[in-house]
């Protein structure tokens, strides 16, 4: 079987609140690699002080069969780093769950998951 083609990265249509606040950061993008795995990369700023932040929705063909939990490092407004999770739901919603205060910055460096 020939290898699958890698899809060109597509810019995520992020939540309007985040879209206005992330200037100067690399855009959130998603695509598929040659193995058919979905990759999410990019950064967000000023996600706020809530523990769960809706980021964007993946279109059909990029959604996992089951919810995926991917670790991320985040930084708060005081410069303290902490752990968070990127949740990718089977309905396509992508959310950031954090365990520290107000999120100043989060970067998703090639977060990869399979569709099954």
Structure report:
The protein is mainly beta. It has one domain: Phage tail base-plate Siphoviridae RBP, head domain (Immunoglobulin-like, Sandwich), CATH 2.60.40.1830. The chain has 1 helix and 8 strands. It has an 8-stranded antiparallel sheet with strand order 1-2-3-8-5-6-7-4, with no helix packed on it. The longest helix is centred in the first third of the chain and has 6 residues. The protein is globular, with a radius of gyration of 14 Å. It starts with 9 loop residues before the first strand and ends with a strand.
Radius of gyration based on Cα positions = 14 Å
Named at the architecture level, the CATH assignment is Sandwich
Tally of distinct domains: 1
Number of helices: 1
User: How many strand elements?
Assistant: 8
- Write down the CATH class: Mainly Beta
* Straight-line distance between termini: 19 Å
Largest sheet: 8 strands, antiparallel
| Strand residue percentage | over 45%
> Low-confidence parts, pLDDT < 50 over ≥5 residues?
none
Structural class: mainly beta
- The CATH topology is given as Immunoglobulin-like
What is the 3D form? globular
Strands in their spatial order, largest beta sheet: 1-2-3-8-5-6-7-4
Question: TL;DR?
Answer:
The protein has a single domain (10-113), classed as Phage tail base-plate Siphoviridae RBP, head domain (Immunoglobulin-like). The protein is 5% helix and 49% strand.
List the helices and strands and how they pair.
Layout lengths: L9 E2 L4 H6 L7 E4 L5 E11 L3 E6 L10 E9 L4 E8 L4 E6 L4 E11 L3
Antiparallel strand pairs: 1-2, 2-3, 3-8, 4-7, 5-6, 5-8, 6-7
């Amino acid at each position: 079987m020939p290898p699958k083609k890698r899809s060109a990265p597509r810019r995520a249509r992020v939540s309007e609140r985040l879209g206005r606040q992330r200037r100067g950061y690399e855009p959130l993008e998603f695509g598929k690699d040659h193995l058919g795995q979905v990759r999410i990369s990019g950064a967000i700023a000023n996600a706020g002080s809530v523990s769960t932040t809706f980021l964007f929705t993946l279109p059909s063909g990029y959604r996992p069969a089951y919810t995926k939990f991917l670790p991320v490092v985040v930084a708060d407004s005081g410069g303290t780093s902490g752990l968070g999770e990127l949740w990718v739901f089977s309905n396509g919603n992508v959310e950031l769950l954090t365990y520290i205060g107000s999120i100043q910055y989060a970067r998703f460096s090639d977060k990869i998951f399979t569709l099954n």
